[in-house]
Design a protein that fits this description.
The chain is mostly helical. The chain has helices spanning 2-13, 15-50, 72-110, and strands at 59-60, 69-70, 114-116, 123-125. It folds into two domains: 2-110, Non-ribosomal Peptide Synthetase Peptidyl Carrier Protein, Chain A; 112-142. The protein has a two-stranded antiparallel ribbon.
Length: 142
């Protein structure tokens, strides 16, 4: 039993699980922001142009007190929430990927492209296996 608990503890403390937990918590908070953006700002603005508030749109199937009600307005609101959330996450991921590519490019630009020949001290290409100036054979570098 102790081995199982230690293995579980090691699993929980791994970076991937902790990152995922943080992502879920931040995602929940972000969802609240997007929901507020939709319900408090976008839905009223769309209501001005469309003349209706989506959350109140319903269709009653049948008659009587117990007739089922389709609340398709809530579905439209949820769909708008999803699209806004997906679009914002897309923009965030796109920005992060662009920043990562820019950082990688900067690292590649900073990497040396030449080396010094140990025999004649001339600058030569990093991949060179023979010096073009003194024709000495060079050790291969990995």
């Amino acid at each position: 039993m102790k081995g199982l608990l230690n293995e579980f503890k090691a699993f929980i403390m791994r970076g991937n699980v902790m990152d995922m937990a943080v992502g879920v918590i931040v995602g929940g908070a972000f969802t609240a922001i997007v929901t507020s953006l939709n319900e408090d700002l976008l839905t009223p603005l769309l209501g001005v142009f469309g003349g209706t508030d989506f959350s109140s749109l319903t269709v009653t199937l049948g008659s009587g007190e117990n007739a089922p009600v389709l609340m398709y307005g809530n579905f439209i609101t949820a769909l708008i929430n999803f699209l806004i959330t997906a679009f914002v996450i897309f923009l965030i991921v796109k920005s992060l990927n662009k920043a990562a590519a820019l950082m990688k490019k900067n690292e590649e630009d900073a990497a040396p492209k030449t080396k010094m020949c140990p025999y004649c001290r001339s600058q030569i290409a990093l991949e060179a296996v023979r010096c073009p100036h003194c024709t000495s054979e060079l050790e291969k570098t990995a």
